[in-house]
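Students often ask why inverse folding is considered easier than folding. One informal answer: many sequences map to the same fold, so there is more than one right answer. In these notes we will look at a single instance of the problem. The structure comes first.
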């Protein structure tokens, strides 16, 4: 293996052509410098410097090294410099994963800010399943927006908001009339209703299923679809219900004739996190990207949750 520790001494000898001066520069004895020169000659299989009268002259190899080494050492030194993130020059493709709802509701704002601040950067969006968290180290993802109660080892995260599950259906659904005075649906109403599930959200393993199972109940599944928008279209055209986070229900209720009711099950609130693997934690470009994304996620969640709470209270 090459001994790179010899290079500072070699550069000094090539520049000074004087062992005494090189020893002084490197704060070693002249005897130590002589031994180092012997090691250098052995390593390069060349004399490097040759005594001529009262001075040293460089061999052909020595001349080549004198020309090449300063630039090489500068390159090596630059490896230790902290990287300065300049968004205008960034050409990275950032990868972000979450639900199709986030792709519709938050991703456009993220892309808009990137287009302004880092016009040469780009974004690749992937659909996410929460069961993949433990595999994040092997995945080429920069950020994940997801629900989790525990942040796995080697992941970093920022909690964005706390939310709850609610039930959504169209204004002309029988439950809208049935619950007009009570403003809440019963467990029987809930289990007897026709449910739409969103497969992309891992709903089959949700706390709803566990809570119903503990009661000896189960949902009547009418349709399973991959995307939130398709689920909403089903709600608008059929007497079906959807169990979804309050902020998503509130967002869609702003644009469609939908009603929101509390979930008739005792399920604790869930937490939304923005997560990344520790391998990215000190990457300046990654730090810039997550600093851009986090406030956009958080503000959207806070705004829509507030809207949802107003709708829920209005129904009481």
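Output (designed amino acids):
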């Amino acid at each position: 293996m090459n001994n790179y520790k010899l290079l500072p001494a070699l550069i000094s000898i090539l520049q000074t052509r004087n062992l005494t001066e090189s020893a002084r520069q490197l704060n070693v004895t002249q005897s130590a410098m002589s031994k180092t020169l012997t090691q250098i000659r052995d390593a390069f299989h060349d004399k490097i410097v040759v005594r001529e009268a009262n001075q040293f002259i460089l061999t052909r190899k020595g001349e080549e090294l004198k020309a090449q080494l300063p630039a090489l050492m500068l390159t090596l030194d630059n490896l230790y410099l902290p990287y300065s993130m300049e968004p205008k020059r960034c050409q990275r493709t950032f990868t972000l994963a979450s639900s199709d709802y986030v792709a519709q509701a938050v991703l456009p704002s993220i892309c808009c800010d990137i287009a302004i601040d880092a016009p040469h950067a780009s974004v690749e969006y992937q659909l996410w399943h929460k069961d993949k968290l433990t595999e994040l180290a092997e995945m080429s993802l920069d950020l994940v927006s997801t629900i989790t109660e525990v942040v796995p080892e080697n992941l970093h995260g920022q909690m964005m908001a706390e939310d709850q599950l609610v039930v959504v259906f169209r204004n002309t659904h029988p439950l809208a009339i049935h619950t007009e005075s009570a403003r809440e649906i019963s467990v029987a109403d809930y289990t007897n209703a026709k449910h739409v599930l969103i497969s992309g959200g891992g709903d089959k393993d949700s706390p709803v299923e566990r809570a119903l199972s503990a009661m000896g109940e189960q949902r009547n599944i009418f349709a399973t679809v991959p995307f939130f928008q398709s689920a909403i279209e089903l709600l608008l055209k059929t007497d079906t219900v959807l169990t979804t986070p309050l902020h998503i229900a509130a967002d869609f209720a702003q644009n469609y004739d939908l009603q929101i009711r509390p979930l008739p099950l005792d399920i604790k609130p869930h937490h939304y996190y923005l997560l990344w693997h520790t391998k990215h934690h000190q990457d300046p470009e990654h730090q810039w990207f997550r600093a851009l994304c986090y406030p956009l996620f958080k503000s959207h969640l806070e705004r829509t949750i507030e809207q949802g709470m107003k709708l829920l209270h209005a129904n009481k």
